[in-house]
Input
Amino acid sequence: MSSSYTRAAQGGTGAVKCGGNYGAGLAAQAEARRHGCDQVLHLDGAADGGGRIEECGTMNLFLVTARGELVTPPLGTILDGVTRGTVLALAPEFGLTPVQRAVTLAELRAALADRTVTEVFATGTAAVITPVRAIKGEGYTLTAGGGGPGPHTLALRERVLDIQYGRKADTRGWLRPVR
Ligand SMILES: *Cc1c(COP(=O)(O)O)cnc(C)c1O
Output
């Protein structure tokens, strides 16, 4: 956790895939690397002090709860990722209720500690679905679930790849033939 940088502000360009957004994330990414992390977990920079989780590097973030919810931050200052939409649409097929709501880092830390959040993963076109093993901040490291890819993470990843590669039927018109 670093309180030095923000990626996107309200009224800004955080919700679109615009080159300028990435420049703002580079310093934070370099700091994450120095601490042995692969990615940055961006929080919102809202005037009320924020602290709500937004995105993970250039991926959208998802939490699986012990109650069977698939929670992801609402749109606004985060990118409306195609993979985010795909995973939200597929969630019910895996017994998960999709929920778009704000989650503070404090809430996430507590939920990882008491295992009410059992899996954390990030989504993007390049990475498809990437499990998050642990979240590290100043003075703490919290393991997500068992520290390996969780069952929902793996099942959703497999399903997205199966649809992309034509191994499972695309019932939603997601695929387009390219001629
Ligand atoms: C590309 C990107 C994502 C993921 O979007 P997809 O459409 O799923 O590839 C998420 N956040 C940011 C900031 C991005 O640039």
